[in-house]
Specification:
Distance between the termini: 106 Å
CATH architecture of the largest domain: 3-Layer(aba) Sandwich
Radius of gyration: 33 Å
CATH class of the largest domain: Alpha Beta
Number of domains: 2
Shape: extended
Order of helices and strands: HHHEEEEHHEEEHHEHEHE
CATH superfamily of the largest domain: von Willebrand factor, type A domain
Number of helices: 9
Length: 348
C-alpha cells in the first residue's frame, strides 16, 4: 500500500492567530497615539492671568530699579561735590577779609549737608541691597506704597499655637501663671512680623494697627478711627502693645473689617495677619460646633465690608484643621490686587 504524501503547510492556524493579534495591537496603538496628538488642551485662564500679573509686577520693579539707581547716582554726585567744597574750606590758610563768621556759618552748613547726604546715601544703598524700591519689598511681594496703611492682626486664641489641641492648654497655663506670653512661639512669630511691617512704613505715611478676636480695637487705646504718624516713638508703642496682648476668644473678621468705615480718609492698603477662616459673623453663633461651610460664609460676608479698590495682602500662619483658608485668602489677594504669603518659620 502506497503512503500518502504529507503536505507541508507553511502557515499554521496558531501562527495566523499570533499575526492577527499583532496587527490588532499595532492598530490599537496607532489609534491611541493619534487621539492624544489631536486632543486639545484647554488653557488655564487663572494661571495665564497670574503670569501676566507677575510680568506687570516685574516691569514695574525694573522701572523702579532705574529710578532708584538714578537717585543713587545723583546723591553720590552731590556728596562728592559737597565733600570737595568742604575740603577746600578746611585747606584754606588765609584769613578772609570779610567777616569770618560768614565763612564759619557756610562751613557749618556744608558740614551738615555732607552728613545729610551721607545718611541719604547709606539709606539708598541699603534699600538697593535689600531690593526695596519705592516702598515695594520684592523679596516678599508685599507692597508698602500706600499713604494710609492699615494692619489687622488676628488676636484670637488660635494664634497661640499651630496645633489646635494645644491652644486652650497653653492659654490656661498663661492665665494661671504657669507660662508666659513669651512661651507662645506662634504669637511671638506674629509680633516679629508686625515689627517688620511697622519698620517698613515710611516716615510720611500714616498707619494704624487693629487687634481683633470676636471684637476689634486699635493696638493703642483711644486711637479708634484715627490715623497714627509714622514716628519712631509711636511705632515702638504700637509694637509694645501687640507684644503684651494675650490672644483669646474666637474670630470675627466681619467685625474688624466693619471698623474700616470709621477711618477718615479710608485706607489705601491693608495687611491682614491671620491663621484661618473666621469662627463667627457679627454675633456669636448659637451652637458650639461650626462647620466648614459656615466658616466660608462668615468669610464671604466679611470681605464685602472691604472698600472697593483697596488691596488686601494676607499673611497666613499655619493652623491644622482649616484647609479652605489658603484658597479663599489667595482669592481675596488676587481679586483685590494684593499679595498672599504663608511665611516660613524663620521669617522675618
Amino acid at each position: 500500500m502506497m503512503r500518502k504524501e504529507r503536505r507541508n503547510i507553511a502557515f499554521s492556524l496558531s501562527f495566523l492567530d499570533i499575526m492577527a493579534c499583532g496587527f490588532g495591537a499595532v492598530t490599537l496603538l496607532f489609534i491611541i497615539l493619534s487621539y492624544n496628538i489631536e486632543d486639545d488642551v484647554s488653557p488655564d485662564i487663572v494661571a495665564t492671568a497670574e503670569i501676566e500679573r507677575l510680568r506687570d509686577d516685574l516691569d514695574v520693579a525694573e522701572d523702579d530699579l532705574i529710578k532708584i539707581k538714578d537717585d543713587l547716582r545723583l546723591a553720590r554726585t552731590s556728596l562728592k561735590a559737597a565733600r570737595n567744597k568742604f575740603n577746600d574750606l578746611k585747606r584754606q590758610d588765609e584769613v578772609p577779609e570779610t567777616d569770618p563768621s560768614l565763612d564759619d556759618d557756610e562751613y557749618k552748613k556744608l558740614e551738615q549737608t555732607v552728613k545729610e547726604l551721607e545718611a541719604a546715601l547709606i539709606e539708598l544703598e541699603e534699600g538697593e541691597a535689600q531690593e526695596r524700591w519705592y516702598g515695594k519689598n520684592l523679596m516678599t511681594g508685599l507692597d508698602f506704597s500706600g499713604q494710609r496703611i492699615l494692619i489687622l492682626v488676628d488676636g484670637s486664641a488660635s494664634m497661640l499655637s499651630e496645633r489646635f489641641r494645644e491652644v486652650f492648654q497653653l492659654l490656661e497655663q498663661i492665665k494661671t501663671g504657669q507660662s508666659a506670653i513669651n512661651d507662645a512661639k506662634k504669637w511671638q512669630w506674629v509680633v516679629k512680623t508686625v515689627t517688620w511691617l511697622v519698620a517698613n512704613i515710611g516716615e510720611n505715611v500714616l498707619f494704624q494697627v487693629y487687634l481683633y478676636d470676636t471684637s476689634a480695637k486699635p493696638a493703642l487705646s483711644n486711637t479708634i478711627g484715627t490715623w497714627l504718624s509714622a514716628d519712631q516713638l509711636v511705632k515702638e508703642e504700637v509694637i509694645s502693645a501687640v507684644r503684651t496682648h494675650l490672644p483669646n476668644s474666637g474670630t470675627s473678621l466681619e467685625n474688624v473689617l466693619s471698623e474700616i468705615k470709621s477711618l477718615d480718609p479710608l485706607p489705601d492698603l491693608i495687611f491682614l495677619l491671620t491663621d484661618g477662616l473666621p469662627t463667627q459673623g457679627q454675633t456669636k453663633p448659637k451652637k458650639y460646633m461650626i462647620t466648614p461651610s459656615e466658616r466660608r460664609k462668615y468669610f464671604l460676608n466679611a470681605v464685602e465690608q472691604i472698600p472697593a479698590g483697596v488691596p488686601v495682602s494676607t499673611i497666613l500662619y499655619p493652623l491644622d484643621g482649616d484647609p479652605e483658608a489658603a484658597l479663599l485668602y489667595w482669592k481675596l489677594a488676587y481679586d483685590s490686587r494684593g499679595s498672599f504669603i504663608t511665611p516660613s518659620r524663620d521669617w522675618p
